[in-house]
Amino acid sequence: MLELLVVLTIMAMATAGVSLVLRDNSDTALEREAQRLVALFESARAQSRASGVAVRWHTTPEGFRFEGLPPGALPGRWLTQGMEVYGNLSVQLGPEPIIGAQAVELVNNQQPERTLRIATNGLRPFVVQARDQP
């Protein structure tokens, strides 16, 4: 009987640990959205350069939009509700290889004090930066 209690206790602790690890908090959601936006920017930038058509990203009430690409070429919604962009609400993504320094700040309304910056110097790819980095 004592062994059964020990096994049940171990199983309960393991289950609690796994549920804490798998829980998606607002920090993880913000980082995931920032990395996804970087990938979308780079994909749109590559498509713009390949086609020679100017592509501009901007926010919309439903999420965001890539003007200059065919409809449905890239997603236009956030994966997490409550995402907002501060500062620059529009980004030019091409077709020129050098696009000029640009940045947007992404924030999750559930944790408004934490902001991630997605930026490029115009020559290098977009990257996610902590808010205080240049």
UniProtKB/TrEMBL annotation:
Entry superkingdom: Bacteria
Alphabetical list of SUPFAM superfamilies matching this protein: Pili subunits (SSF54523)
Name listed for the protein in its UniProt record: Type II secretion system protein GspH
